[in-house]
Write a structure and sequence with these properties.
single chain; mainly beta; seven-stranded mixed sheet; 0% helix; 47% strand; globular
């Protein structure tokens, strides 16, 4: 059974850092593009960052450029999102996804269930 499971969300103060993890099972993540998305209640889900299956090329949405970093560990079948200098506007449910268009960070085929990140003092 193909599955993506996120972890690492939680409550953090503004300016703090969090690292989200997404472990895949039932398929080899190395062969697929991957991405992180987020959604706030009442708003559309947005692509935060995506990474190509080959070459490590990445894209980031403008609000997180310079603060967030996507990476993957193929040996662990896991993708990460390092989030620094967090702001209250980063508060959202964060979803991991795989197998889609990494350039436009869209049309992903496989999705996790999400992990909540709350940035608040």
């Amino acid at each position: 059974q193909l599955q993506l499971v996120e972890s690492g969300g939680g409550l953090v103060q503004p300016g703090g850092s969090l690292t989200l993890s997404c472990e895949a099972s039932g398929f080899t993540l190395e062969y697929y593009s991957v991405g992180w998305f987020r959604q706030v209640p009442g708003k559309e889900r947005e692509g935060v960052s995506c990474m190509a299956d080959i070459g490590g090329r990445t894209t980031y949405t403008d609000p997180v450029k310079g603060r967030f970093t996507i990476s993957r560990d193929n040996a662990k079948n896991t993708v990460y999102l390092q989030m620094n200098s967090l702001k209250p506007d980063d508060t959202a449910v964060y979803y991991c996804a795989a197998a889609g268009n990494w350039k436009t960070c869209s049309s992903m085929r496989y999705w996790g269930k999400g992990t909540l990140v709350t940035v608040s003092s």
